[in-house]
Write a structure and sequence with these properties.
Blueprint lengths: L9 E5 L2 E6 L8 H4 L22 H15 L11 E2 L6 E3 L11 E9 L4 E3 L1 E3 L7 E4 L22 E7 L6 E3 L11 E3 L3 E6 L5 E5 L7 E5 L9 E6 L5 E5 L6 E6 L55 E3 L12 E3 L7 E3 L22 E6 L5 E6 L2 E6 L4
Parallel strand pairs: 20-21
Antiparallel strand pairs: 1-2, 3-4, 5-6, 5-9, 7-8, 8-13, 9-12, 10-11, 11-17, 12-17, 13-16, 14-15, 14-17, 18-19, 21-22, 22-23
Protein backbone atom coordinates (compact mmCIF):
# COMPACT_ATOMS: atom_id res chain seq x y z
CA UNK A 1 0.00 0.00 0.00
CA UNK A 2 1.35 3.46 -0.83
CA UNK A 3 -0.13 6.79 0.28
CA UNK A 4 1.64 9.38 -1.84
CA UNK A 5 -0.17 12.46 -0.56
CA UNK A 6 -0.20 15.84 -2.24
CA UNK A 7 -2.68 14.68 -4.88
CA UNK A 8 -0.33 12.03 -6.24
CA UNK A 9 -1.62 8.57 -7.09
CA UNK A 10 -2.00 6.11 -4.23
CA UNK A 11 -2.12 2.38 -4.86
CA UNK A 12 -2.78 -0.96 -3.20
CA UNK A 13 -0.88 -4.05 -4.34
CA UNK A 14 -1.26 -7.71 -3.29
CA UNK A 15 1.63 -10.10 -3.99
CA UNK A 16 3.21 -7.36 -6.07
CA UNK A 17 0.15 -6.82 -8.27
CA UNK A 18 -1.53 -3.40 -8.16
CA UNK A 19 -5.22 -3.99 -7.58
CA UNK A 20 -6.41 -0.43 -6.92
CA UNK A 21 -5.30 3.14 -7.50
CA UNK A 22 -6.67 6.43 -6.20
CA UNK A 23 -5.82 10.13 -5.85
CA UNK A 24 -7.80 10.48 -2.63
CA UNK A 25 -5.47 11.69 0.11
CA UNK A 26 -5.61 10.16 3.58
CA UNK A 27 -2.87 10.76 6.12
CA UNK A 28 -4.74 9.58 9.22
CA UNK A 29 -3.23 6.28 10.32
CA UNK A 30 -6.13 5.41 12.63
CA UNK A 31 -8.83 6.09 10.06
CA UNK A 32 -9.98 2.44 10.09
CA UNK A 33 -10.68 2.50 13.80
CA UNK A 34 -12.39 5.89 13.39
CA UNK A 35 -14.71 4.21 10.90
CA UNK A 36 -15.37 1.34 13.30
CA UNK A 37 -13.44 -1.21 11.21
CA UNK A 38 -11.34 -3.90 12.87
CA UNK A 39 -9.03 -6.59 11.50
CA UNK A 40 -9.49 -10.31 12.10
CA UNK A 41 -6.67 -12.66 11.12
CA UNK A 42 -2.94 -13.11 11.48
CA UNK A 43 -0.13 -10.64 10.84
CA UNK A 44 3.50 -11.78 10.70
CA UNK A 45 5.23 -8.61 9.58
CA UNK A 46 4.22 -4.96 9.15
CA UNK A 47 6.44 -2.34 7.48
CA UNK A 48 6.01 1.41 7.00
CA UNK A 49 8.36 3.75 5.12
CA UNK A 50 8.19 7.52 5.17
CA UNK A 51 7.12 8.53 1.68
CA UNK A 52 10.00 11.00 1.66
CA UNK A 53 12.28 8.02 0.93
CA UNK A 54 10.53 7.83 -2.46
CA UNK A 55 10.83 4.07 -2.97
CA UNK A 56 11.11 3.33 -6.66
CA UNK A 57 10.02 0.10 -8.34
CA UNK A 58 13.36 -1.66 -7.78
CA UNK A 59 13.34 -0.86 -4.08
CA UNK A 60 9.78 -2.10 -3.80
CA UNK A 61 10.72 -5.37 -5.53
CA UNK A 62 13.61 -5.92 -3.11
CA UNK A 63 11.24 -5.57 -0.18
CA UNK A 64 8.57 -7.72 -1.80
CA UNK A 65 11.15 -10.37 -2.71
CA UNK A 66 12.36 -10.56 0.88
CA UNK A 67 8.80 -11.00 2.15
CA UNK A 68 7.89 -13.48 -0.59
CA UNK A 69 10.81 -15.82 0.16
CA UNK A 70 10.36 -15.54 3.92
CA UNK A 71 6.65 -16.32 3.86
CA UNK A 72 6.34 -18.62 0.84
CA UNK A 73 4.26 -16.15 -1.17
CA UNK A 74 4.40 -16.11 -4.97
CA UNK A 75 4.71 -12.63 -6.44
CA UNK A 76 2.30 -11.97 -9.27
CA UNK A 77 3.81 -13.08 -12.58
CA UNK A 78 1.26 -11.65 -15.00
CA UNK A 79 4.23 -9.56 -15.99
CA UNK A 80 7.39 -11.61 -15.41
CA UNK A 81 8.90 -10.34 -12.17
CA UNK A 82 12.36 -11.14 -10.82
CA UNK A 83 12.93 -11.80 -7.15
CA UNK A 84 15.81 -9.50 -6.16
CA UNK A 85 18.12 -9.75 -3.12
CA UNK A 86 19.01 -6.85 -0.83
CA UNK A 87 22.17 -5.97 -2.80
CA UNK A 88 19.96 -4.98 -5.72
CA UNK A 89 21.74 -7.22 -8.22
CA UNK A 90 21.57 -10.86 -7.04
CA UNK A 91 18.55 -12.58 -8.57
CA UNK A 92 16.77 -14.97 -6.22
CA UNK A 93 14.39 -16.03 -9.01
CA UNK A 94 15.40 -15.18 -12.55
CA UNK A 95 12.40 -14.99 -14.86
CA UNK A 96 14.69 -14.86 -17.91
CA UNK A 97 16.25 -18.25 -17.10
CA UNK A 98 15.66 -21.04 -19.61
CA UNK A 99 12.13 -22.51 -19.17
CA UNK A 100 11.41 -20.24 -16.16
CA UNK A 101 8.30 -18.78 -17.80
CA UNK A 102 6.72 -22.25 -17.67
CA UNK A 103 7.36 -22.62 -13.94
CA UNK A 104 6.09 -19.35 -12.48
CA UNK A 105 3.52 -20.82 -10.06
CA UNK A 106 4.14 -21.62 -6.38
CA UNK A 107 7.55 -19.89 -6.28
CA UNK A 108 9.19 -20.52 -2.89
CA UNK A 109 12.52 -21.45 -1.41
CA UNK A 110 15.20 -21.12 1.23
CA UNK A 111 18.15 -18.78 1.51
CA UNK A 112 20.14 -16.25 3.48
CA UNK A 113 20.32 -12.50 2.94
CA UNK A 114 21.90 -10.65 5.86
CA UNK A 115 20.96 -7.31 4.33
CA UNK A 116 17.30 -8.16 4.93
CA UNK A 117 17.84 -10.25 8.05
CA UNK A 118 16.60 -13.27 6.08
CA UNK A 119 17.62 -16.75 7.21
CA UNK A 120 15.01 -19.13 5.78
CA UNK A 121 15.94 -22.77 6.40
CA UNK A 122 12.61 -24.45 5.60
CA UNK A 123 9.85 -23.40 3.23
CA UNK A 124 6.62 -24.42 1.56
CA UNK A 125 4.62 -22.38 -0.91
CA UNK A 126 1.49 -20.94 0.66
CA UNK A 127 -0.35 -21.28 -2.64
CA UNK A 128 -3.41 -23.52 -2.54
CA UNK A 129 -2.62 -27.08 -3.63
CA UNK A 130 1.11 -26.90 -2.96
CA UNK A 131 2.53 -30.30 -1.97
CA UNK A 132 6.31 -29.87 -1.66
CA UNK A 133 8.46 -28.42 1.14
CA UNK A 134 12.21 -27.82 1.13
CA UNK A 135 14.62 -27.65 4.06
CA UNK A 136 18.32 -27.66 4.88
CA UNK A 137 17.68 -30.80 6.92
CA UNK A 138 14.90 -33.40 7.05
CA UNK A 139 12.90 -31.53 9.70
CA UNK A 140 9.52 -30.41 8.37
CA UNK A 141 7.74 -29.76 11.65
CA UNK A 142 9.88 -27.38 13.73
CA UNK A 143 9.65 -23.61 13.30
CA UNK A 144 12.13 -21.94 10.97
CA UNK A 145 14.11 -20.43 13.85
CA UNK A 146 13.92 -23.50 16.12
CA UNK A 147 17.17 -24.45 17.86
CA UNK A 148 16.75 -27.99 16.49
CA UNK A 149 17.64 -26.66 13.04
CA UNK A 150 21.38 -27.00 13.42
CA UNK A 151 22.16 -27.02 9.68
CA UNK A 152 22.84 -23.44 8.62
CA UNK A 153 23.40 -21.63 5.35
CA UNK A 154 27.04 -21.63 4.29
CA UNK A 155 27.02 -18.34 2.39
CA UNK A 156 25.32 -15.00 2.45
CA UNK A 157 23.16 -14.32 -0.62
CA UNK A 158 22.64 -18.00 -1.31
CA UNK A 159 19.22 -19.20 -2.40
CA UNK A 160 17.57 -22.41 -3.56
CA UNK A 161 14.17 -21.65 -5.05
CA UNK A 162 11.56 -23.75 -6.86
CA UNK A 163 8.65 -22.80 -9.08
CA UNK A 164 6.02 -25.16 -10.49
CA UNK A 165 4.10 -25.49 -13.74
CA UNK A 166 0.86 -25.56 -11.71
CA UNK A 167 -0.24 -28.85 -13.28
CA UNK A 168 -2.23 -31.57 -11.56
CA UNK A 169 -0.77 -33.67 -8.75
CA UNK A 170 -3.18 -36.50 -9.54
CA UNK A 171 -1.52 -39.70 -10.70
CA UNK A 172 -1.40 -40.29 -14.43
CA UNK A 173 -0.98 -43.89 -15.55
CA UNK A 174 1.13 -44.57 -18.64
CA UNK A 175 1.44 -40.89 -19.63
CA UNK A 176 3.15 -39.66 -22.78
CA UNK A 177 6.01 -37.89 -21.00
CA UNK A 178 7.62 -40.82 -19.20
CA UNK A 179 10.49 -43.16 -19.94
CA UNK A 180 10.64 -46.88 -19.23
CA UNK A 181 13.26 -46.25 -16.55
CA UNK A 182 10.84 -43.95 -14.69
CA UNK A 183 8.10 -46.57 -14.47
CA UNK A 184 4.55 -46.31 -15.73
CA UNK A 185 2.87 -43.69 -13.55
CA UNK A 186 3.75 -40.08 -12.77
CA UNK A 187 2.20 -36.77 -11.83
CA UNK A 188 1.90 -33.92 -14.32
CA UNK A 189 3.21 -31.29 -11.91
CA UNK A 190 6.84 -30.33 -12.36
CA UNK A 191 9.15 -27.94 -10.54
CA UNK A 192 12.11 -25.97 -11.82
CA UNK A 193 15.06 -25.42 -9.48
CA UNK A 194 16.99 -22.16 -9.43
CA UNK A 195 20.17 -22.26 -7.35
CA UNK A 196 22.04 -19.01 -6.64
CA UNK A 197 25.42 -19.33 -4.89
CA UNK A 198 24.02 -22.53 -3.37
CA UNK A 199 26.08 -25.72 -2.96
CA UNK A 200 24.53 -27.54 0.01
CA UNK A 201 22.39 -30.68 0.11
CA UNK A 202 18.72 -30.33 1.03
CA UNK A 203 15.68 -32.41 1.89
CA UNK A 204 12.30 -32.37 0.16
CA UNK A 205 8.93 -33.55 1.42
CA UNK A 206 6.05 -34.33 -0.94
CA UNK A 207 2.74 -34.28 0.89
CA UNK A 208 0.46 -37.22 0.13
CA UNK A 209 3.16 -39.40 -1.45
CA UNK A 210 4.98 -42.43 -0.03
CA UNK A 211 7.94 -44.75 -0.51
CA UNK A 212 6.62 -46.10 -3.81
CA UNK A 213 7.48 -42.79 -5.50
CA UNK A 214 10.84 -41.61 -6.88
CA UNK A 215 12.02 -38.06 -7.58
CA UNK A 216 13.27 -37.64 -11.14
CA UNK A 217 15.33 -34.77 -12.51
CA UNK A 218 15.61 -33.69 -16.13
CA UNK A 219 17.41 -30.92 -18.00
CA UNK A 220 14.36 -30.56 -20.26
CA UNK A 221 10.65 -30.11 -19.44
CA UNK A 222 9.95 -33.06 -21.76
CA UNK A 223 11.21 -36.02 -19.78
CA UNK A 224 11.33 -38.16 -22.91
CA UNK A 225 13.84 -35.77 -24.50
CA UNK A 226 15.99 -34.60 -21.60
CA UNK A 227 18.69 -36.38 -19.64
CA UNK A 228 16.73 -37.97 -16.80
CA UNK A 229 18.24 -38.87 -13.42
CA UNK A 230 16.61 -40.88 -10.65
CA UNK A 231 17.38 -38.87 -7.49
CA UNK A 232 16.00 -41.61 -5.25
CA UNK A 233 12.89 -42.85 -3.50
CA UNK A 234 10.79 -41.02 -0.94
CA UNK A 235 10.30 -42.59 2.48
CA UNK A 236 6.92 -43.46 3.97
CA UNK A 237 6.47 -39.80 5.01
CA UNK A 238 7.21 -38.52 1.50
CA UNK A 239 10.69 -37.27 2.44
CA UNK A 240 13.94 -37.55 0.51
CA UNK A 241 17.11 -36.14 2.05
CA UNK A 242 20.71 -35.53 0.99
CA UNK A 243 19.77 -34.08 -2.41
CA UNK A 244 22.12 -31.85 -4.36
CA UNK A 245 19.90 -29.95 -6.77
CA UNK A 246 21.42 -28.29 -9.81
CA UNK A 247 20.42 -24.92 -11.20
CA UNK A 248 17.76 -25.28 -13.91
CA UNK A 249 16.83 -28.87 -13.08
CA UNK A 250 13.21 -29.92 -13.67
CA UNK A 251 11.75 -32.28 -11.05
CA UNK A 252 8.74 -34.58 -11.00
CA UNK A 253 7.48 -37.73 -9.26
CA UNK A 254 7.04 -41.13 -10.93
CA UNK A 255 6.87 -44.79 -10.00
CA UNK A 256 6.53 -48.31 -11.33
CA UNK A 257 3.19 -49.82 -10.39
CA UNK A 258 1.73 -53.23 -11.00
CA UNK A 259 -1.97 -53.98 -11.39
CA UNK A 260 -4.09 -56.73 -12.95
CA UNK A 261 -3.73 -56.27 -16.69
CA UNK A 262 -1.71 -53.11 -15.83
CA UNK A 263 -5.03 -51.35 -15.10
CA UNK A 264 -4.57 -49.34 -11.91
CA UNK A 265 -7.27 -46.69 -12.29
CA UNK A 266 -10.12 -47.46 -9.90
CA UNK A 267 -8.32 -50.43 -8.36
CA UNK A 268 -9.42 -50.59 -4.71
CA UNK A 269 -8.65 -54.18 -3.71
CA UNK A 270 -6.05 -56.66 -4.98
CA UNK A 271 -5.66 -59.68 -2.71
CA UNK A 272 -3.13 -62.34 -3.70
CA UNK A 273 -2.47 -65.45 -1.67
CA UNK A 274 1.06 -65.62 -3.08
CA UNK A 275 1.84 -62.24 -1.48
CA UNK A 276 1.08 -63.42 2.06
CA UNK A 277 4.82 -63.74 2.63
CA UNK A 278 4.70 -64.15 6.41
CA UNK A 279 2.10 -66.91 6.32
CA UNK A 280 2.98 -70.34 7.66
CA UNK A 281 1.56 -73.25 5.73
CA UNK A 282 -1.63 -74.72 7.21
CA UNK A 283 -2.09 -71.93 9.77
CA UNK A 284 -4.84 -69.32 9.92
CA UNK A 285 -4.47 -65.81 8.49
CA UNK A 286 -5.64 -62.74 10.40
CA UNK A 287 -4.94 -60.03 7.79
CA UNK A 288 -4.72 -60.22 4.02
CA UNK A 289 -2.49 -57.41 2.73
CA UNK A 290 -4.06 -55.31 0.02
CA UNK A 291 -1.71 -55.00 -2.97
CA UNK A 292 -3.63 -52.07 -4.51
CA UNK A 293 -1.21 -49.15 -4.14
CA UNK A 294 -2.50 -46.34 -1.98
CA UNK A 295 -5.20 -48.51 -0.39
CA UNK A 296 -3.20 -51.05 1.57
CA UNK A 297 -3.49 -49.44 4.99
CA UNK A 298 -7.11 -48.39 4.69
CA UNK A 299 -8.59 -51.54 3.22
CA UNK A 300 -6.61 -54.53 4.48
CA UNK A 301 -9.29 -57.13 5.31
CA UNK A 302 -9.02 -58.65 8.77
CA UNK A 303 -10.64 -61.28 10.94
CA UNK A 304 -10.27 -60.76 14.69
CA UNK A 305 -12.04 -64.01 15.61
CA UNK A 306 -9.48 -66.81 15.48
CA UNK A 307 -11.94 -69.57 14.61
CA UNK A 308 -13.29 -67.51 11.69
CA UNK A 309 -9.95 -67.09 9.96
CA UNK A 310 -9.20 -68.99 6.73
CA UNK A 311 -6.21 -71.35 6.48
CA UNK A 312 -3.21 -70.62 4.28
CA UNK A 313 -2.41 -73.47 1.87
CA UNK A 314 0.96 -73.39 0.11
CA UNK A 315 1.44 -73.84 -3.63
CA UNK A 316 2.46 -77.44 -3.06
CA UNK A 317 -0.76 -78.29 -1.19
CA UNK A 318 -3.54 -80.32 -2.79
CA UNK A 319 -5.77 -77.22 -2.46
CA UNK A 320 -3.40 -75.10 -4.55
CA UNK A 321 -4.64 -73.77 -7.88
CA UNK A 322 -2.11 -74.38 -10.66
CA UNK A 323 0.76 -74.47 -8.14
CA UNK A 324 -0.32 -71.15 -6.60
CA UNK A 325 -1.24 -70.87 -2.89
CA UNK A 326 -4.78 -70.35 -1.68
CA UNK A 327 -6.72 -69.40 1.43
CA UNK A 328 -9.08 -72.16 2.49
CA UNK A 329 -12.49 -71.15 3.90
CA UNK A 330 -14.52 -73.65 5.94
CA UNK A 331 -18.05 -72.84 4.61
CA UNK A 332 -19.13 -72.22 8.21
CA UNK A 333 -17.91 -68.88 9.50
CA UNK A 334 -14.58 -68.10 7.79
CA UNK A 335 -14.62 -64.66 6.19
CA UNK A 336 -12.84 -61.28 6.12
CA UNK A 337 -14.25 -57.89 7.09
CA UNK A 338 -13.55 -54.72 5.11
CA UNK A 339 -14.38 -52.09 7.70
CA UNK A 340 -12.82 -49.20 5.73
CA UNK A 341 -13.70 -50.05 2.14
CA UNK A 342 -16.02 -47.47 0.62
CA UNK A 343 -17.06 -48.20 -2.96
CA UNK A 344 -20.30 -47.64 -4.83
CA UNK A 345 -20.62 -49.41 -8.15
CA UNK A 346 -17.95 -52.04 -8.62
CA UNK A 347 -16.75 -55.03 -10.63
CA UNK A 348 -15.27 -58.08 -8.91
CA UNK A 349 -12.89 -60.65 -10.40
CA UNK A 350 -11.84 -63.75 -8.48
CA UNK A 351 -10.22 -67.13 -8.92
CA UNK A 352 -11.80 -69.62 -6.51
CA UNK A 353 -12.60 -73.30 -6.19
CA UNK A 354 -15.90 -73.90 -4.40
CA UNK A 355 -15.59 -77.28 -2.69
CA UNK A 356 -18.81 -77.13 -0.60
CA UNK A 357 -21.71 -76.86 -3.06
CA UNK A 358 -24.36 -76.89 -0.31
CA UNK A 359 -23.51 -73.45 1.08
CA UNK A 360 -23.70 -69.90 -0.27
CA UNK A 361 -20.40 -68.55 1.00
CA UNK A 362 -20.04 -65.01 2.31
CA UNK A 363 -16.52 -64.11 1.15
CA UNK A 364 -16.36 -60.42 2.02
CA UNK A 365 -18.37 -58.53 4.59
CA UNK A 366 -18.60 -54.78 3.94
CA UNK A 367 -19.52 -53.12 7.22
CA UNK A 368 -22.22 -50.47 7.24
CA UNK A 369 -25.76 -49.86 6.06
CA UNK A 370 -26.13 -49.69 2.31
CA UNK A 371 -22.99 -51.73 1.60
CA UNK A 372 -22.95 -54.96 -0.41
CA UNK A 373 -21.65 -58.25 0.95
CA UNK A 374 -19.95 -60.40 -1.69
CA UNK A 375 -20.92 -64.08 -1.94
CA UNK A 376 -19.63 -67.04 -3.90
CA UNK A 377 -22.50 -69.26 -5.02
CA UNK A 378 -22.83 -72.21 -7.35
CA UNK A 379 -23.64 -69.69 -10.06
CA UNK A 380 -20.60 -67.49 -9.45
CA UNK A 381 -19.99 -64.24 -7.59
CA UNK A 382 -23.02 -62.32 -6.35
CA UNK A 383 -23.66 -59.40 -4.01
CA UNK A 384 -26.45 -58.58 -1.58
CA UNK A 385 -27.38 -55.12 -0.38
CA UNK A 386 -27.34 -55.04 3.41
CA UNK A 387 -29.36 -52.87 5.71
CA UNK A 388 -31.58 -51.38 3.01
CA UNK A 389 -35.28 -52.28 2.95
Amino acid sequence: LANAGGGLENFVAIDGKVIRTSTIVSSTMDQASTLGEVFGGQISEFIIYDQANDLDGTHQKRIQSYLAIKYGITLDQTTATHYIASDGTTLIWDTSALHASSYDAEIFGIGKDTGSGLDQRVSKSQSSGSIVSIALDANFTAANNDAARTTTHTNNLQFLVMGSNGASTSTNYNPVEITAAMGNERIDREWQVQATNFNQSVALQFEGFDQTWHVYSSDNPDFTVGTVTDLGALNAQGIIAGLTLTDGAILTLAREIFAPGAISQGLEVWLKADEITAAVADTNVETWTNQALGNAAATAPTQTTVNSRPIFRAGSHSSAINFNPTLSFDATDDKFDFSDLDVGNYQVFAVANKTDITQTGNLINLAGTGKHDIYLTNGGLKSANKGVS
